[in-house]
Design brief:
The protein has 284 residues and is of the alpha/beta class. It folds into 2 domains: 29-115, Rossmann fold, CATH 3.40.50.10860; 140-264, 3-Layer(aba) Sandwich (Rossmann fold), CATH 3.40.50.720. Helices cover 40% and strands 16% of the residues. The chain has helices at 7-27, 44-59, 75-87, 106-112, 124-131, 140-151, 171-179, 197-202, 246-250, 263-278; strands at residues 3-4, 34-40, 63-69, 93-96, 160-164, 186-190, 206-209, 227-230, 234-236, 239-241, 255-256. A hairpin with a 2-residue loop joins β9 (234-236) and β10 (239-241). The longest helix has 21 residues, at 7-27. The protein is globular, with a radius of gyration of 19 Å. It starts with a strand and ends in a 6-residue tail after the last helix. The structure holds 5,10-Methenyltetrahydrofolate. 5,10-Methenyltetrahydrofolate binds at residues 48-49, 52, 95-98, 120, 140, 233, 240, 259-261, 264-265, 267-268.
Length: 284
């Protein structure tokens, strides 16, 4: 029976710490941190995420703004808006919700964000700083996973971590951070072309699934006692499920994150932490 890593609860604790730090910053004469979110189009999941982010900001004493743009907006108009937000001294963090519509080149838009306001840490300058071990911001989801590991005293040093999924947003930075000094894991970055993925996973002390395939990771892929971190959020007919077959994994693993209530809420907490840092505060 695995110990459940409750991301909902931990995210509330961290958000409380952030609220305290915001209050300290403001009472020391600092400016109220402000996050500007940009939402293009009407994607229902994106609307829910952005709303949740704004609610979390409000509760932590972080100001939030929302720019809603029509799905058919031109790339040039979107870039104009980002230029304005870059120049606005009241705005500390800028988040352009992904995915963007097809007429817009997401990489061009993300590169237009001032790296000092890039609270997603998607800008190449911030990716580069992270790769070199001098991060300005850590990307929110991998940062949230690291916080979950640290605050549950899950050892990574000398362990074999297997990350499934090589996305720029989760898999790649997750693998890199776990291998860095301080975390000291030996990391395998597995993906859709990895031969005998079940066997690779069975060798993992720490298994991180970030692929976006419902319940792909089966119970017999898991080493007994392993920590299983499920980053997947898949909407299926039977509701929201992760990338891991939770019921089967829970019987074998030592620790496991639920979906929902695992990594997702931690991602939002780390977005607030990055916004606080962008405003000159001390993030947890
Ligand atoms: N620029 C940008 N930055 C992002 O960080 C970003 C993005 N675009 N696009 C979409 C993904 C996805 N993402 C989630 C954040 C929180 C939950 C979350 O809180 N999930 C809840 C459940 C929410 C639900 O019911 O869907 C949970 O897991 O308990 C999920 C997903 C951030 N993303």
């Amino acid at each position: 029976m695995a110990k459940i890593l409750d991301g909902k609860q931990l995210s509330l604790t961290i958000r409380g710490e952030i609220a305290d730090a915001v209050a300290r910053l403001v009472s020391a004469g600092g400016k109220q941190p402000c996050l500007a979110a940009v939402l293009v189009g009407e994607n229902p999941a994106s609307q829910v995420y952005v709303r949740n982010k704004q609610k979390a900001c409000e509760q932590a004493g972080i100001a939030s703004r929302l720019a809603r743009l029509p799905a058919d907006i031109s790339q040039a108009r979107l870039l104009e808006l980002i230029t304005k937000l870059n120049a606005d001294p009241a705005v500390h963090g800028i988040l352009v919700q992904l995915p963007l519509p097809d007429q817009i080149a997401a990489d061009t838009v993300l590169r237009a964000i001032d790296p000092a306001k890039d609270v997603d840490a998607f800008h190449p300058e911030n990716v580069g700083l992270m790769v070199q071990g001098q991060p300005r911001f850590l990307p929110c989801t991998p940062h949230g996973v690291l916080q979950m590991l640290r605050r549950n005293a899950i050892e990574t040093a000398g362990k074999h971590a297997v990350v499934i999924g090589r996305s720029d947003i989760v898999g790649k930075p997750m693998a890199l951070l776990l291998a860095q000094r301080g975390w000291d894991a030996t990391v395998t970055l597995a993906h859709s072309r990895t031969p005998d993925l079940p066997a690779v996973c069975r060798s993992a002390d720490l298994l991180i699934a970030a692929v976006g395939k419902p319940e792909m990771v089966r119970g017999d892929w898991i080493k007994p006692g392993a920590a299983v971190i499920d980053v997947g959020i898949n909407r299926t007919d039977s509701g929201l499920v992760g990338d891991v077959d939770y019921a089967a994994a829970e019987a074998v693993a030592g620790w496991i994150t639920p979906v929902p209530g695992g990594v997702g809420p931690m991602t939002i907490a780390m977005l607030l932490a990055n916004t606080l840092k962008a405003a000159g505060g001390e993030s947890p």
